[in-house]
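=== Structure Prediction Worksheet ===
Name of assembly: unnamed complex
Input type: mixed (protein and possibly other molecules)
Chain count: two
Listed entries:
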Amino acid sequence: MRKAALYLAIFLVLLLAPLAVRLFQYYDPLAEAPATPPAYTGAGIGAVPTPEAGNGADTVQTGAATQRDTGAARGVVVLDQAHGNQFTREELATLDGLLAARGLRVQPLAEGELTEALRAATALVVVAPVNGYSPAEAQAVSDLVARGGRVLLVGDPTRYNIEIDEADIFAAPIIATAQVPLNDLANAFDITFRGDYLYNTVENEGNFRNILVGGDGLGDSALTERLERLALYSSHSLQLGPSAAALLSADDNTWSSATDRPGGLVLAALSPAASDAGQLLAIGDVHFLTEPYSTVYDNGAFVARVADFLAGGRGSTDTLAGFPYFFHSPIDLVYSDDPELGPDAFDDIIALQAAFRGAGLALALADEADDDHDALYVGLYNTAADVAELLDAAGVSLAIRPAIARPAITAATDPDATPTPSHGTRLVESPLGDVEMAGTALLLLADDGARRQLVVLAASNDGLESALERLRGAASAEGVNLTDCLIQDNLALCPTGVANEPVEYELDTSGPAEEPTTEPEQPDEDQEDTTAPIDKGRIALGETKTAELAAEEIHAWTFDGGPATINIAVDPDTDMDAVLELYAPNGTLMANLDSAFAGGVEEMRGVEIPDDGQYFIVVRDFFNDGGHYQISIAAGEPAQPEPTTEPGG
Amino acid sequence: MDEDDASTGSPLRVIVIFLLIVVLPLAIGLFAAARLTPRPQIGIIRLSYDINSQTAYEIGQQLRTARENPAVKAVVLVINSPGGSAAYSEELFLDVLDTRREMPVIASIDLLAASGAYYMAAAANEIYAKPTSAVGSVGVIASLPGDIFIDEDLLTTGPYKAFGGTRDGYVRQIERAKLAFLDAVQVGRGDRLTIDLETLSRAEIYTGVQAKELGLIDSLASGEEALRRAAALAGVRRYEAVELYPLTFDTDTIPLPEVRYQPLPIDEARLRQAPAALAPGLYYRYVEPGATR
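=== Predicted Assembly ===
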């Protein structure tokens, strides 16, 4: 039995031995046990909070006139779209609406010159351009700020330029994310957009590149007043110089992709920091302006503040240079002196209306300007009674000098000589100086706060046509071109370009005359005197003569002692305001002088008489009352002629 | 008399007894041992190129094979991948975790284990890489949906039926996916992770050396060492490294050497090639610089 058990044991041992050997061969019973696999439940996945929606109600500054009130724009915001700007108008719909609510008119600039467009602007908005700006454009932006305008520069790291190698169209496009053409404009204001983006992996608005700004990050400014938290959705950082101040700053957990360093990063800035007038606001992100991001936290309020900022701009629309944008629709077009309007007048009116329409303004012909409407007065100097008060208020007077008749003795030597005017010298006396009406158009902007009235006067119908053409061309987009005018704020004296322009007395709206107009009769006898001068005979060098000038009388003395340089002096009695004139043998007015009041000596010094022809020295009384006077011719020293006013000059 | 016969025994009897008592059990033991304790295998599963439905299926099936095959005692994942679809990456992560309950899984990174590929690797017991392997890119990439609109002829029962959701909502979904990724890495790596999650969320690519310092991997080691480590964790002294792909998909139906399964060498250009376009969706994928636009 024991033997059987032994056999069985051997059997079993030998049966299991291969298994044991194999197990020992393959496996290590002392091996470390692998770690228990972790339990994964997803419970550790954090939440991503949805931000609070801000109060979307817009609060326009109390008291500010709005477009809703008047239907008129209180300023022009030029929106640059001419530099490859990477945005759509739809994206700026929120800002558009806020600007409109503030009475601002957004003028997109897709083509044309920024420099021209800014002449009529109160503010400029530039968003994410990919093309650079010329020095002239940068200067125009600086000029806008200098005259009180506002500029908003908005960059965005997600709006970049993609350059294609035209020499190798199969080459990979170059993505120029580090180029920020906005710096062409911003650098003049001590602001530089870095070619980076900001990120915050610790606390952000749903994504590392969505930067939260709050607390100390909100600068001390009306733009950030009462704001608590803003979110900017991908932003450049700004580098500031001494004249710029940070408006929005990121916290210490925000990093710049350019330096991969945190802290001290600015997302928005104002420059000049201390200015209450013109300023430039630079912001590194465009998304906060767009929906739905404009509704997050206090973004909506901030966008409204940006609109307020733009509405605070002053610019050329306060002055003539802002034509036609200083007008508020509707505008009454009033022809002074109520003329009968001919077909050409209608053409002019239609063209003017079209030009105003192009500027978003409604212009309508009216007999009289409505007290509630702005007005454009058009007329001749001689028919300007309707606007006399406006002219007086501006310190402008239309002075008509007493008439000077051409001497009866006309030049036998030059029968084709240009006839001298038979009327008096008509001047526009203004704070800018005195100029002759002939050849000059006057533009005067009167703004009493309630309405704006533009007066356009010229000496002739042709001159008026020229002035209106200037306005028509300018009303398109860029504002009136006054570069060749003598201009001061609201008053401009512009050349009409009409040769030998007469001073006409009647508004002729049937069209310009084909032939040079003949001076019509002066209807005002007090102002016009065509009395022929009385020949008082010869007066020689060194002679002194006396004469009695009767009322309404003109004396003509003949001097034929040339060539010589002479001084001509007229010494009148105290009641007589002498006017002294010198005519050439052909009847051309060489010089005239009325430099003294009654009783004062009028003296032309250093008058060059080039030959021995008959020159006429005309003496008259300014008031045509006559008087006793003494005239003398003395040898003079060559000198500059006495101040004269040349006809047409 | 009988007992004497038996004790002294004839030679024939002795031979019979020897055969029955010694040879037979040895033969049976050897036969049974070969059947009952086959030579242990360390299964090799290769994740190459993008993670998508195809690769996720293939890897999942191979992991299943490993779990169901008693000879396979551990798995080594050989990774050369920039990641891919988020959901498939997560599926692989969960499959690896499942497998770990039955056997050790070691991840061995060759050239690249980025984003979703690292997501899967994070579930392994241990991760090995080469000093210059590219590791990391812990983050999400996705395209936001376009503007919403309504169509006259296309009627939906909700404002986002045709779009899935708002752009802003999608941003938050993406952020949530990032947090899920970070959580998975945190779960998989546990205390070994020395990099903080905020820094990890920068989604940088690290070299193997950096990844070791940051706790993203366990060691710098070769593929052979990964096999040895897998065997050690499985308590295996001697093993056979087997490719699980042919085992899973039966590629050796024609047993000729020239048609036997051979893992293809990695095409680096293909590995680093950016996708032509990312279809809408969430991706745990690394895209080479300059290829995201």
